[in-house]
Each structure stands twice: as C-alpha cells, then as structure tokens.
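#onboarding

Welcome to the new folks! Below is a worked example of what a typical request in this channel looks like: someone posts a single protein sequence, and someone else replies with the predicted structure as tokens. Don't worry about understanding the tokens yet, we'll cover that in week two.

Example request:
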Amino acid sequence: MEVTVLIPNYNGLKFLYDCIDCLKKQSIKDFRILVVDNASADESVKWLKENNIDTLVLDKNYGFAGGVNAGIKEVDTAYTILLNNDTKADVYYVENLLKAIKAEEKVFSVSPMMIQAQDNNRIDDAGDGLCIIGFAYQIGVGESVKRYEKKMKVFAACAGAAIYDTALLKELGAFDEAHFAYLEDVDLGYRARLYGYKNLYEPSAKVIHIGSATSGSKYNDFKVKLAARNNIYLHYKNQPLLQLIINALPIALGMFIKLLFFAKKGFLKAYIEGIKEGFASYKKCKRVDFKKVKLSTLIIIEFELIINMFKFVLHFIKRRIDRLY
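Example response:
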C-alpha cells in the first residue's frame, strides 16, 4: 500500500457518501481511506462507523490545519492525498496522482485539476499561486478546463485534493496550526519551495469540487478575518527581513486593494480585524530557518512572485472576457 487518502470532515455528512463512493470506484484499490472528524455535531461519525470507514474522531474542532495534522500522524504510507469531503473524484484520480508524484525527483506535492461542480467546463483550481502584492490565488479559477490540459509547475498545491510525499510532509512540520484554516496550504507549499522542492499540477487527475462547503459561502466574516490574518503570517514566516522590506510597498498596495474590495462587499470590519490580529500575533509563528535556504532560491522565488503578478492579472482579464460570452 503506497497511499492514504485523508479526508477532513466537519459537519459534512451530506457530502461524505458521494466522496467516499467515488473513492471506492477508483482504478486502483490498494489504498487506505482515513477520515478525520473535527468533532462534528451532525451524524457524520455515526454514518462513518456504520459503513466501516476508518475514522479518527477528535475532541473538538481543530480547524483544517489541526485536523489534518492529527491525521498525518496516523499515516504510514509513502504518500498522502488530502481530499475535501465536498469532492467527487474521477476514477483515475488516485492512480494519476501517484504516477505524477513518482515521475520526477524532488517533488513535494501535486495538485489535480479541480473542476467546478456548478459548471464542469470551468476550473475551480489548477494549483495555487502567490504574487508580489501578497495575493494568493487559485490558478485558472473560472476559466475553461481546455486551457489547463498541460502539466506545469505551480507555486503551491491546493490541499483540497493534492498528493504529498509523506516523509517530506512530516519533515517540514506539516500544516501550521496557527492558521487554523485558509492559506495553510500556500504556506506549506512556500516552505517546501524554500527548501528546494517542487509543487506540480497534473491535469489527468480530476476532481469535481463544490467549494466552501464547510464555511458555507465564498465570503463571510469568519473566512475574511482568518484569511487577512493568515496572509500576514504567510509573508512573515517565509520571507527574510530584507525581502520583507523590499516587498513592503507592493504588499501594502495589495492590502489596500483588498480593503476597498471587502468594503464594497460589506466585510470591511472583518478584514480590518484580521489585519490587526495578524500584526498583533505574527511573532507566535515559527519562521523558516533561512540559514538552510539558498540565496539563489530566494532570488528565483522573488522573480516568480513578480511574474505571478502578471499571470494573476491575465487570469482576471480572461475571466472577465469569458463572462461576456
């Protein structure tokens, strides 16, 4: 057995049947399914036990990061797939992720093609990007799946359906539980990049994704606040002081743009509260050991952050054009 499919769950009973049913229909059968339940108040645990699904039941809600980390400690296979409960995996999903992560050296993670449940012709996520103004973004979101049929390197994998090298996952400290939820996967992918590993996108592995199943909506006070706070953690942890100084102005510009956006959406208070909490508590985060990071790696990533700014704008323009047709 080479891989464990780890499914975090919190009050997701209505999604579990479809998610697990698709896993039972996979082209390969020799893998473990492990559900980590974050103290659900619905009947998720009862259903899982009745259906003999291996389940780790936690005593409270530790968030995505804490819940997944508890599950990772129980994994003894070479690879770990993290799969959101609100997904439906293609029959070759597990097989093709395994092939992709084993095909190259120094690969930390591989993202599949995540497809919108509302429109199966649109991308939900083709890996995650990060740009110089501090925006983390879903690559390809809202665009045609036909534009993302080629393998490529990505900044980080989306933990909603990605495969990871288990040994490296544990070695790198897994997910930072200070995040609780949101941006913890970009943080982990960034950390892996700094230590010289690769994150890839594999389009032959596909999943349908509903999205925001646990939080309940694309934007809400909880999500906006945590994402704003965690964005500060993300940069503080993964950039040395000189890089933070160099990037201070573009990051401040990005924060101002988001402030205007969330003011328009009615979430200004939540966004400001998240920023305040981030600056008040960032020192509790464990920073990358930059003594172990090559200067050349920092320079390459800095240029990538700049290039990703143009890619992000291009994605934005494409989505706007697509909406016209």
